[in-house]
Amino acid sequence: MDRLLTVTFGDGDLVEQLFALKLSALRNEDTPTLWRLTDELIAMAIAMAKADTPIHWPAGYISETRLFNVPIDPVRNLPHLLCENYMIYPFTVTPPHICSMA
Fold first, then answer.
1. What global pTM score does this model have?
2. What distance in Å separates the CA atoms of residue 72 and residue 81, rounded to the nearest whole number?
3. Where are the beta strands (DSSP E) in 1-102?
4. Is 77 contained in some domain?
5. pLDDT digits (tens, 9 = 90+) for 77-99
6. Of 15, 32, 72, 95, which sits most exposed with the smallest number of CB within 10 A?
7. How would you classify residue 79: left for phi > 0, otherwise alpha for psi between -120 and 50, otherwise beta?
8. Residue whose C-alpha is closest to residue 70's, from 78, 59, 79, 81
9. What is the DSSP letter of 25?
10. Measured between alpha carbons, how far apart are the two ends of the chain, in Å?
């Protein structure tokens, strides 16, 4: 039976988490060839990148068609990064929650 690798990046904004997923693939010597992201994730990534400083994310590095120089394929569910040889790096969206301070 095949094993599924689950990667957790912890806290941080969506764009940082997706960037870390790409770096994880590169560290494993997999070449990312396609993002499969939902429309909602694409819109959130673009909004977060615009809110960030232009020095951190250069212009054009995040768009509706490319994310970190990798093409985007919009999907309805199961967002992930597809790499060469069909290696799939799944991205699990963590629902937002409120942290209370006592």
1. 0.77
2. 9
3. 32-38, 66-67, 70-75, 80-83, 88-90
4. yes
5. 889 999 988 899 988 876 655 65
6. 95
7. beta
8. 81
9. H
10. 46
